[in-house]
């Protein structure tokens, strides 16, 4: 069986998807109650490493909360993608910021992978807007978080009903690799999986 075209593949590939990392700033992380903060940041950083490995474009954005601006993306993430500019917004819906939307369009990708805070605000607003504009939205459920279990669950339900896809760090990284015979990326792929699953994991 021949391999599917990576541009038109139903699954995510390095050629058809882009990664959006939104509002991984200390105040937003502190407000999350649905996942351990360290694990949340580690998983988002892992996504950035996977994006680099499989050559996905990355869009990075932060929220300006006052006239003095806002804190930048935490260094654990920003240092992995130092060449990606941080788009500073005032809009709670990133899709309503012209610079953010221009950056998404410039990727040329129609499958968008979201890691954003909080689930019930910025993430859900952006995902619903992206779907409305004809994009396929993928929510990485272990790289997002809400301010309460109830708010988080309601946001996931609303996005799913609109057509959003849910995935995880492990599923996403395996989906991008797909075949351990792809020797150019397999060693780093296995390192990423081991870091998520633990040193006892055997490929």
Can you walk through the features of this model?
- By secondary structure, the chain is an alpha/beta fold.
- The chain has a single domain (17-197), classed as Rossmann fold.
- Helix content is 44%, strand content 15%.
- The chain has 8 helices and 6 strands.
- It has helices at residues 26-30, 37-54, 75-78, 98-107, 119-132, 149-162, 169-177, 183-197, and strands at 17-22, 58-63, 86-89, 111-116, 136-140, 165-167.
- Strands 3-2-1-4-5-6 form a 6-stranded parallel beta sheet, with helices on both faces.
- Strand 5 (136-140), helix 6 (149-162) and strand 6 form a beta-alpha-beta unit.
- The longest helix is centred in the N-terminal third of the chain and has 18 residues, at 37-54.
- The chain starts with 16 loop residues before the first strand and ends in a 6-residue tail after the last helix.
Q: What's a quick, concise take on this entry?
A:
By secondary structure, this protein is α/β, with parallel strands linked by helices.
CATH class: Alpha Beta
The residue ranges in which pLDDT falls below 50 over 5 or more consecutive positions are: none
Mean pLDDT metric? 94
Radius of gyration: 16 Å
Approximately how much beta-strand content do the residues carry? 5-15%
The main sheet comes to:
6 strands, parallel
CATH architecture: 3-Layer(aba) Sandwich
**N- to C-terminal distance:** 24 Å
Name of the CATH homologous superfamily = Isochorismatase-like
List how many beta strands DSSP finds: 6
What's the number of helices?
8
Tell me the strand order in the biggest sheet: 3-2-1-4-5-6
- Indicate the CATH topology: Rossmann fold
Estimated helix fraction: 40-55%
The global form is: globular
- Counting structural domains, the number is 1
The secondary structure category is alpha/beta
SSE run? EHHEHEHEHEHEHH
């Amino acid at each position: 069986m021949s391999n599917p075209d990576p541009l038109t593949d139903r699954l995510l590939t390095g050629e058809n998807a882009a990664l959006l990392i939104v509002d991984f700033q200390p105040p937003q992380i502190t407000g999350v109650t649905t996942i351990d903060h360290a694990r949340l940041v580690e998983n988002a950083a892992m996504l950035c490493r996977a994006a680099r490995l499989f050559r996905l474009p990355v869009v990075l954005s932060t929220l300006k909360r006052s006239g003095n601006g806002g804190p930048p993306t935490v260094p654990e993430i920003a240092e992995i993608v130092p060449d990606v500019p941080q788009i500073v917004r005032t809009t709670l819906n990133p899709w309503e910021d012209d610079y953010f939307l221009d950056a998404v369009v410039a990727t040329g990708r129609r499958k968008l992978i979201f890691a954003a805070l909080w689930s019930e605000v910025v993430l859900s607003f952006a995902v619903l807007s992206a779907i409305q504009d004809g994009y396929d939205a993928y929510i990485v459920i272990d790289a997002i978080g809400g301010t309460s279990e109830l708010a988080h669950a309601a946001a996931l339900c609303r996005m799913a009903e609109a057509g959003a896809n849910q995935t995880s760090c492990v599923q996403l990284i395996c989906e991008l690799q797909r075949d351990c015979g792809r020797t150019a990326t397999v060693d780093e792929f296995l390192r990423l999986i081991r870091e998520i699953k633990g040193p006892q994991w055997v490929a």
